[in-house]
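Before the break, one more example. Copy the sequence into your notebook; we will annotate it together after we see the structure.
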Amino acid sequence: MKTLRLLLAGIIIASVGVQIRADTITLTDGRVIQGHLDRRGNNYIIHPDHGPAFEVPVKDLASIELGGGNTPAVTAQNAWHALEYNISRQKNLDAVIKSITAYELKYPHSPLLSDAQKTLAKYKMYKSKGFVLFAGKWVAASQVKTLIADSAVSAKKALANYKAGQFASAATAATKALKINPANANALIIRGAVDYRLGNLQAAGRCFFRELSTDPHNVIALNDMAVTVYHQRQEPRALVYYTKALDMGSSNRLLLDNIYIAMNHYTLGHATLVFKNLSKLFTPADAKIQAVMAEQGLYRVGGTWVKRSVRRKMLRKIQAYKKKKSRLQAKYNTTKLYLQTVQKRLALVIAQIKTISANIAYVQAQEYYTSQMNGTISMGDQAVISSYLVQLANAKTQKLKLEDLNSSTLGKMHEMRMQARQIEKSVPAQALLGHQRIMLPGDLTHVPPPAPLMVAGSHLQLK
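Here is what the structure looks like once it is written out:
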């Protein structure tokens, strides 16, 4: 039995539709299957000797043990190609050197022995010079600091571009930083922030999630993930991220402002467990930050902070806003119920018209049949038809009135929605609603100033 080792990068047979007979197929996840396989584009269809066929990408194939009779030279070549792939995934220099040395001992007459010797010499040089693996490449340990510094410089440039509103340049610089050092948390945050600002919420979420996969305690990434998923209408998930962030960043005012707004907007009920858990942490944390802000002469109004004199005025306006909103909502709800009644009555009248029309058609058909049989017209049938015609006329008149009522009621509801939009633009509404803000690198230690009082709200909508 000879072993055919396949390089995932391109050693596997590339022709479409070629079938390979095999005794043993080994996948990269460790599964071993007895059977054969077919190439279909960039995938393989594996046909086990027992069980249904299934499809896997080419990259998931680790090795195949064929039943054919490969020569020792071919076997050695295939073994080297497989070893090259394994080396590319290895993170330990000693393990690499050991595996190449073992290959040389096992295949001393391999046609690729010189390649193996050159590769072994290269990795021994890496070891002697203290090379380390960084961003998927073996580099001198002294170079790591330079690479990290270069990546940090690009991330700093990305942050400056972002704050200047130059989002395309910020994205370019952040991407460059990540290419140098994929683990640069600041670059990931900025790249995600750019996507968020450009409305690419899914891409933004991927950046923040990638950072959290490395560092689940990154408060900035937790906040930004919460803001992103909240705007994707995943409110409970956002509150979970806020809870994790608050557990580690309870003294950060921007985080608390975001949480206040999120809780104020939450539409799934304050009795839910996720809301209660967050509220339990938020209440004491917000009390402390309010005491700190009060020393600066600033007081919370919704998601922002104002001076005491402004706060008193704003609270009065907010109360007036809430009353106006409540009255408008009540009026809208009443009108909506009235519309439903009108539409039900209209549906009944339409059904009545259909019934009367059917009855008239039936009587007319019956009258025609009788007249053909007897040669006379039934006055009784005429009287019935006349009665039905009167009913039909009345029903049609009622239908027109109900249609007018339906149109006028819809018009009133449209006017109330327009009023709601105007109320939404008012200063108290904007102060109360606010919006959740993305955090940037440095915002934990140097918290940006409170959001301006005039922040567009978007949650007062009559439905």
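The chain has three domains: 2-137, 144-303, 311-431. The chain has a mean pLDDT of 85. Try to locate both features in your own notes.
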